[in-house]
Amino acid sequence: MKRRETLWSAVSMLACAVMPGLASAVQSAEGVKAPAFTTLDANGQSRTLEEFKGRVVVLEWTSPSCPFVRAQYTSGKMQELQSWARAAGVVWLSVLSTNPKRGDYLRPQQALAFMRERRAQPTALLMDPSGQLGHAYGARNTPHMFVINQEGMMAYAGAIDTQPTVDESVVPKSRNWVRAALEDILAGRVVAKPATTPYGCLVGYEA
Q: Taking a C-beta distance cutoff of 8 angstroms, is the pair 90, 57 a contact?
């Protein structure tokens, strides 16, 4: 896994940057009803937002090649957060919006194997090769994170944490915005920080 991720990371750095998401998408996230969706997961099962009605849902835009995503997983912090969230009853949906024409596109079974190598702990891995789901949410970066509350409303949108980095040793020193939002929701509090500027690589939509 290390060798493959290192190779992909080196190549993808040419196409990666600390890029902000669309300001309108971030600023309008709080209090907006989350877009409904129907898409296949990597096992070929149809998944909808409606099936998780009444539960807190996290959407994590991920990538097999982005070094910002790699740092989160190599540090173990992403898996730790996923495991903690699921134990608390949160639904965690990782999303691959990589277009099939891109060199780092993974077919569903390849994507599942890659996520297993990373020891990822999502509830499901959603495949979005058309980019329809990504565009509906305004997902611009990997990682780009969205949290939906029990009422189906957007509660958080933006970065995974406070420090844009490709250095896995820096990740544990960062404040995790997603965990903070989840802790607020689960405690019945208003999310203190409902929006931040996402960072990372651009989502691999069709050019």
A: yes
